[in-house]
Specification:
EC 3.1.2.4; six-stranded mixed beta sheet; hydrolase; globular; ClpP/crotonase-like_dom_sf; alpha/beta; 48% helix; four-stranded mixed beta sheet; 2-enoyl-CoA Hydratase, Chain A, domain 1; 3-hydroxyisobutyryl-CoA hydrolase activity
Length: 340
Amino acid sequence: MSASSDPPVRAEVTGGLGRLILNRPAAINALTAEMVGILRRTLAGWSETDRVRAVLISGAGPRGLCAGGDLRAMHADAVSGGTGSLDFWADEYRLNAELAEYPKPVVAFMDGLVMGGGIGVSAHASLRVVTERSRLAMPEVGIGFHPDVGGSWLLARAPGELGTHLALTGGTIGAADAVAAGLADVFVPSARLDELAAALETGDAAEVVAAFAASPPPGDLAGARAWIDDCYAGDDVTAIVGRLASSPAPGAQAAAKEITTKSPTSLVVTLRSLRSAAGMPDLRQALDQEYRLSAALLRLPDLAEGIRAQIIDKDRRPRWQPSTLAEVSPAVVDACFTPR
């Protein structure tokens, strides 16, 4: 079989292990509607057979598990008024919920780049493995969007205000910080992933993963908890940026500068989404809210502009509308959260 005819997701069963390998390495395994469909159908089938005792999700190629969704397709919908993204999100969010509720152990190798939709296909798994190469991020506020795929649920449940920090800066974290933020469970050196996968074919998933666990290289978040928890408290993005900017901690001042480059509308929507998700009883309710937000933001100007600046023209100079937090309309934000 030639590379061009390879399926975008490889589904294999070896021993008692069902393997789902995202297989678009040239695109860092970015998710398409076809891939989401294959994942959902395969997981549904495997849930019904005794042959599969556990599932392993990984990515082909050396660059990462998954770089997220197809932003060019999203941009085309945002510009044209298309609805393809709405269908994609509905299916993708169902997949996120199904992974979280799966009746068998699901192991995710969060190796390399894991962003946006990549978080969605891995951070809801029951056993989440990071390596020294792991780079996790929910960078959506930088493209006029919001942390979706259950990101509001996950980040709202991170210790203290770590999730708020990650959501509003869109920052990238490594293995230790991913574990500290509750987005991953164990660190395994990347050189041992093949050995771990082989052991999962015959052993109990939780016991096997625990046997391979090691100590990750030190991270940054644990030492920053004091200023993060202090600065990110509350429901007002402007107040948060003010506290960060006036903090003596260099990391806080850097965070303030980073946040001010993001979409003001997205920042306000994202903070409210996290605070709301914190009080929800389950992931599905958070995903329902995220779908409303995604549909609303698709029709606001910042999503098309943010993707244009990052992906299409690559000038990295988005012109947000409105351009400041003070100009964000409470009525526009309220409308994003209103059930249709």
